[in-house]
Amino acid sequence: MTNTYEIITDNLALPRGARFDVEPGPIEAGQLAMIEIGDRQTIGRYYPDVAGCDWITQPDLIIQVDGKIPVSVVGPVMQIC
Hints:
Elements: E1 3-6, E2 19-22, E3 32-37, E4 40-50, E5 53-58, E6 61-65, E7 71-80
Antiparallel strand pairs: 1-2, 2-7, 3-4, 3-7, 4-5, 5-6
């Protein structure tokens, strides 16, 4: 099942107001994806197991997944409107 979302903040890979679809499922390393960090949803590029850690990148930000806060990759960003 595909879900549609809208960007409501700045400094992400897509501009504020952009709409996109996400189909839950696996992604390739570095693919733009919907990611849940704790109880928040965001988009970014997910890189699993690089130098022994998982990473999320966004413009001007690199996040190391350290296990203190649950992180879940929902699925790839499919269609940008």
